[in-house]
Amino acid sequence: MEASRSISPEIQRINPIGYADWNALIASQPKHSFFHTAEWAKVLADTYGYTPVYFAAGETDGGRSILPLMEVDSWLTGRRGIGLPFADVCGPLCADAGTFQKLFQSAVEFGKSRNWKYIECRGGRELFGKVPASLLFYGHRLDLTAGEDGLFSHLESSVRRAIRKAEKTGVTVQVLQSHEAVEVFYSLQCQTRKKHGLPPQPFRFFLNIHRHILSQDMGMVVLARYDGRPIAASVYVNLGDRAIYKYGASDEAFQDLRGSNLVMWAAIKEYVRRGAKHLDLGRTSIGNEGLRKFKLGWGAEEHKIEYVKFDMRKNEFMTDVDETSGWHTRVFRRLPVFLARAVGASLYKHWA
User: Fold this and answer.
1) Which segments of 114-202 does DSSP mark as H helices, in order?
2) Within this chain, do residues 158 and 108 fall inside the same structural domain, yes or no?
3) CA distances from 130 to 32, 92, 124, 126, 137 (A)
4) Do 31 and 116 have their domain in common?
5) CB burial of residue 352 (10 Å; 0-12, 13-18, 19+)
6) Interval 327-350: pLDDT, tens
């Protein structure tokens, strides 16, 4: 697909992969995130074969408005437009609702020509007016401008104790960007996904994260070890002064050593050192009080993340159900890791 195509005097359809200075273009937008980058588009396209179909209006400068979508074409779950797959939040970058409506209408017309089932926007509900959110999550953002000492003082006492315990018991932490670090993380990730009753993502997904993101100094793996054995690891991504905690994993057998707490604290300190201004801790399902409490314990500010879904066949906005847990989680908890990996490698392309 070419980098851009005019579909009206006002609207263009853009592929950010190969588009010159794309990241500089989106970084000028106040509500941009890492998920708007060309690198995230490359990971999704290379791993799952999704097609970028971003809609843009305005001049090719910081004033440009953008509606990011990926076409997911699946024989199992149908064809649809997602903005963006496997992103916690990646809303439209529009200064006003009027411009957004033009972009959205162009996306609807394009989607109908492609026989999409629906369009899902992960963020930007305020631009839609009085329409229902299809899904609702908690989001948590940590302000890093207080510095290391200020941040530590605002941690809940239980979190400070956990960090000190990990340090005193000899847990060590490394900040890495290597292929080997990704392999170690993935081994822990498979264990963690089994615990949660979910199949692990395909290994090639994380290989592409290494290829397009970590190797470009746009992210890192923070790895904790005890007596040389990996016990916890997390993957972070970053753009400019903004960072995101994307994936976390651990060995449940060493949970008492609080390696995950030390990993998060090491990441916070590293991003403070780099001059980052905030760290997003990702989305949390409304019913997951344990994860919500963990994130609030770091002194993060809580907000709502709202998705919007438009049914192309009924021409109406729809509500959805958070399928993070259900009968399938009970099944995947019982599967051996090798089989869960095979299922994940087959299903994630269709899941989106």
Assistant:
1) 147-153, 157-168, 179-196
2) no
3) 23, 17, 12, 8, 19
4) yes
5) middle
6) 678 888 888 999 999 999 999 999
- 291 and 249 assigned to the same domain: yes
Read off the pLDDT of residues 112-168 as tens digits, 9 standing for 90 and up: 999 999 999 999 999 999 999 999 999 999 999 999 999 999 999 999 999 999 999
How distant, in Å, are the alpha carbons of 141, 267, 324 from that of 303?
8, 22, 20
CATH number at residue 186: 3.40.630.30
State the first-to-last Cα distance of the chain, in angstroms, to the nearest integer. 21
Rg (CA), the chain: 20
- Say what the pTM is: 0.95
Report the number of distinct structural domains present in the chain.
2
Instruction: Give residue 151's domain range.
Output: 138-304
In this structure, are residues 31 and 91 in contact, taking their beta carbons and an 8 Å threshold? yes
Tell whether 183 and 279 lie within a shared domain: yes
90 and 152 both lie in a single domain: no
Distance of alpha carbon 194 from alpha carbon 37, whole angstroms: 30
For 28, 33, 283, the CA distances from 287, given in Å and listed in that order, are: 35, 25, 12
Residue 238 to residue 216: CA distance in whole angstroms: 11
In a domain, 315, yes or no: no
Q: How many other C-beta atoms lie within 10 A of the C-beta of residue 79?
A: 16
Q: Token pair for residue 173?
A: 């932490």
